[in-house]
Specification:
- The chain has about 325 residues and is of the alpha+beta class.
- The protein folds into two domains: about 5-125, Immunoglobulin-like, CATH 2.60.40.10; about 160-320, no CATH class.
- It is about 45% helix and about 20% strand.
- The chain is built from ten helices and nine strands.
- It has helices at about 5-25, 135-140, 140-155, 160-165, 175-180, 195-205, 210-220, 220-245, 255-285, 290-300; strands at about 30-35, 35-40, 45-50, 65-70, 75, 75-80, 85-90, 100-110, 110-125.
- Strands 1, 2, 3, 4, 5, 6, 7, 8 and 9 form a nine-stranded mixed beta sheet that branches.
- A hairpin with a 2-residue loop joins strand 8 and strand 9.
- Helix 7 (about 210-220) runs antiparallel to helix 9 and helix 8 (about 220-245) runs antiparallel to helix 9 (about 255-285).
- The radius of gyration is 31 Å and the shape is elongated.
- Mean pLDDT is about 85; it is low at about 1-25.
Length: about 325
């Protein structure tokens, strides 16, 4: 039988050995991440993490992590199918800063938290393929040159009917609609379903009263919109007659000051429509509840309109008696 002092020495040695292991192993590691990179704006990304199994080991399979993080992005639908394997779903915001992100997986253990980590283990790259439309690109010489060239080509090869086309989203441009369309991370911006998906998702968040405010305002602006459309015709016709050499008797061409004065009236009508809508939208925004704001924030986190719910029906049909199956143009 060993003397008590020997047992004491052995216990101290074992404790020292275990302490040495714990100190020598500075942190638990994530040994592999798959995939280990993605573009900003990526949605529903399944990421698999492999954990080391040395001391202290991960909890048994099924004893899932309390959190899985890539930088500040929180993973959802977490699984722990084996002791060394963890999976989670990530929605990477379209505005997420690019670069390497630290990864951390935290398990709750009795009296403590066990963290597995990998510094810079996941890289977020730009969601742009080089076709992003920003203010610098919009105002660049090439952008203006291309716009003028495209406009000129349309004028020279078109007709008065082509000139008279009035895009239904014209006024919405003041609210960033065109930017959203040009820079949708899922590339759906110019798909015919874009406007419908956006409208249905947003309107399903709004109350009937908020929607009715928009409907009432739209109906009250019909005369102004018609006036804007009709007032464009004399100027369009004047440009067309100048191109065709069909000048009124005694005229030598268009007068710049007259054209500018006439255009100013068109912009007054356009500004009146836009200002009226801006006041309405401001009131709707101020009336949003915290639940509505959270729902709108959630749409942004989905990483593009292509990831929004495309199965929703037209909510206007429940409050409108016009008999139409849809109220939206593309």
């Amino acid at each position: 039988m060993w003397p008590g002092w020997l047992w004491g020495i052995l216990v101290v040695a074992l404790l020292f050995a275990f302490h040495g292991v714990a100190v020598g192993h500075q942190s638990n590691q994530i040994t592999q991440i798959s995939p280990n990179s993605a573009q900003a704006g990526t949605a529903n990304l399944l990421v698999t993490f492999t954990l080391d199994t040395d001391f202290p080991p991960p909890p048994p399979a099924g004893d899932g992590p309390q959190s899985v993080m890539i930088g500040s992005i929180v993973g959802t639908s977490i699984t722990h199918t084996s002791q060394s394997a963890v999976t989670a779903i990530f929605n990477i915001p379209s505005g997420e800063p690019t670069g390497a992100k630290d990864v951390a997986i935290a398990f709750s253990i009795p009296g403590d938290t066990l963290v597995f980590s990998l510094a810079g283990g996941f890289t977020v790259s730009s969601g742009s393929s080089g076709d992003e439309y920003n203010i610098e690109r919009t105002l660049s010489d090439n952008a203006q040159l291309n716009t003028i060239a495209f406009d000129g080509l349309g004028f020279l090869t078109g007709n008065l009917g082509g000139q008279s086309f009035l895009p239904p989203g014209k006024v919405a441009d003041y609210s960033g609609f065109q930017y959203l369309r040009d820079n949708d991370p899922t590339g759906l911006g110019h798909n015919t379903s874009f406007v419908t998906i956006v409208a249905y998702n947003v309107l399903h968040i709004l109350t009937t009263d908020q929607i009715n405010q928009m409907v009432t305002r739209a109906q009250s602006q019909i005369d102004l919109i018609n006036e804007y459309a009709y007032q464009r015709f004399p100027l369009m016709k004047a440009f067309r007659r100048l191109l065709d050499g069909d000048l009124p008797a005694g005229s030598t061409g268009l007068n710049k000051d007259s054209v500018m004065a006439y255009s100013a009236r068109l912009y007054e009508i356009d500004g009146e429509i836009s200002y009226d809508r801006a006041k309405l939208l401001g009131g709707v925004v101020r009336s949003l509840t915290s639940t509505q704001r959270a729902s709108l924030d959630n749409l942004k986190t989905l990483g593009g309109v292509g990831n929004w719910d495309s199965t929703l029906t037209d909510p206007l049909c429940t409050i409108c008696t016009c008999g139409r199956s849809s109220h939206w143009s593309t």
